[in-house]
Amino acid sequence: MIMKKILILVFFAMFSAHPHAAEVDLTLVANAPPGGPGDKLWRMFEDNIAAKAGTRIQVKKLVHGELGGDDVGFQAIRKGRGQMGIAGENGFAQAIPEASVLNLPFLFSSPEECDFVFDNVWTPEAKRIAESRDIILLQWVEIGWMNLFGKKPMTEPPDAQGYRMRALPYEASQAFLKTIGADTIVMPTPDVIPALQTGLISGGESSLLMYVRTGLVEYAPHLTLTQHSYATSGLFANKRWLARLSAADRATVVAAFPDQNFIRSDTRASLVQELNIAKTKGVIAHDLTPAQRQRWEAASQPIHRAVLDRLGPEAQRIYALVQDGKKTFAARQ
């Protein structure tokens, strides 16, 4: 009888020694600025995981660029060093180079048209393409419209002629700035402020969030609101890791991140606040008149065919689908 009690006590001691042992380890990877909207989204993700799984799914966050830029983070997800995370086009273009089609300048004429094409045309195609290349695209994480920043306003295309500008490391950005006559240089985000300080560059292309949060406002106070393309990151998961999870755990992690509609409305509300913050820091925002926008659109049109020719048949197919989507949207108005 005494021996039986001892065995029972040993049994409970063994299991109580590790009360929080995790059955699933989940490392999140991203390259977001601290204090930005991404922090709130990841907190919501963690809270949703905890509500469904308690401490059985252990979450580790490397979401402020601890592993490097989007390209490194995306590779980490693909190779299983991280299981889920967010990557911008500089990262996911490794698997989905056709995504550059959606960044062609002045492809969309309104936010409503952009939303319709993303939701009904591009998202199902992108998910199919990603899975065929062994990565799971769960949803988009919207960043917002891209604009031009500089030490002077650029409200007309000739304003960029010969201007030394930082281009982003993907096809559409570089082609856009070169076509309008800018003297372009590609560089990672951490190098942009030193380049502005030394005069290596005088401006560039950026989302509003990155322009404000990375401190560019101090060195390039003119923000021209061209809103020439709509930038998104993607929420990705390692395909093999996701497949190994139980059905219940898979459902938990897939549903834990705030959904697309929430992110869209939250992002757009926060961008209004970001612009107001930027103006208090001395930023001079320049809206385009309808006539100015038409001149920018005309100057940018040759880029579309040139980029599509370089990207190849699959990108051309996506472009045709986008154009069909725009026609469908117009017919509904």
Verbal overview:
This protein has helices at 2-16, 37-53, 70-79, 89-92, 111-132, 171-179, 192-198, 208-213, 239-244, 247-256, 260-280, 290-311, 313-332, and strands spanning 24-29, 57-62, 84-87, 135-150, 164-167, 183-186, 203-207, 222-225, 230-238, 284-287. The longest helix is centred in the middle third of the chain and has 22 residues, at 111-132. Helix 2 packs antiparallel against helix 10, helix 5 runs antiparallel to helix 13 and helix 6 (171-179) packs across helix 12. Strands 1, 2, 3, 4, 5, 6, 7, 8, 9 and 10 form a 10-stranded mixed sheet that branches. It has a single domain, classed as Bacterial extracellular solute-binding protein, family 7 (D-Maltodextrin-Binding Protein, domain 2, 3-Layer(aba) Sandwich). It is globular, with a radius of gyration of 23 Å. Strand 1 (24-29), helix 2 (37-53) and strand 2 (57-62) form a beta-alpha-beta unit. With 333 residues, the protein is of the alpha/beta class.
User: What is the N-to-C order of secondary-structure elements (H for helix, E for strand)?
Assistant: HEHEHEHHEEHEHEHEEHHHEHH
N-to-C CA distance:
82 Å
Biggest beta sheet summary: 10 strands, mixed
Radius of gyration: 23 Å
Number of domains: 1
Strand content: 15-25%
| CATH superfamily (homologous) name | Bacterial extracellular solute-binding protein, family 7
Reported by name, the CATH topology is: D-Maltodextrin-Binding Protein, domain 2
Number of strands: 10
Mean pLDDT: 90
What is the CATH class name? Alpha Beta
Oligomeric state as shown: single chain
What is the overall shape?
A: globular
| Proportion of residues in helical segments | 40-55%
